[in-house]
Amino acid sequence: MRVLGIDPGLTRCGVGIIDVNDRRQSVFVYVNVIETPTDAPLDMRLLMLEEAIQEIVTNFQPDAVAVERVFSQHNVRTAMSTAQASAIALLVASKNGIEVSMYTPTEVKAAVTGSGRANKAQVTAMVTKILKLQDAPKPADAADALALALCHSWRGIGQTRIAQAINQLKAVSS
Length: 174
Description:
Elements: E1 2-7, E2 12-20, E3 26-35, H1 42-60, E4 64-68, H2 76-95, E5 99-103, H3 105-113, H4 120-130, H5 140-155, H6 157-173
Parallel strand pairs: 1-4, 4-5
Antiparallel strand pairs: 1-2, 2-3
Helix pairs in contact: 1-2, 3-5, 4-5
């Protein structure tokens, strides 16, 4: 199974892809950070983000998408732009018939490090170790995207397989 993790952001959106086998062992495939210019109009930034995520989906054909759930923040402007980027990720996944799961930052940290209170350095260190990477993914948005994919591979993979089986049954019966 191939999982695309997305750490949504309008200025920087982390994307990471892993392959997971039946024993839930993960192998690194791809990581990047999509950036949009802060001086561009909002509609153009959203379009750039949508096109970049669509290109990744087209090129890598993920079976599942894991997106960080927007949580309450004191900075409304930051929360709004994160929510807009999340909506783009959800839209692209839906347009491509890919199941989406959402995880809170605490769930991701707990899955990857064992502690929901882990800091960014600890998450990055564990992602690097788990995926046997030579270098730590940078910036933190890249590591967070891979952490989301890992979280889904350990916590949500059963849901994805059930959804795939249902889709196969629907295709056969039509």
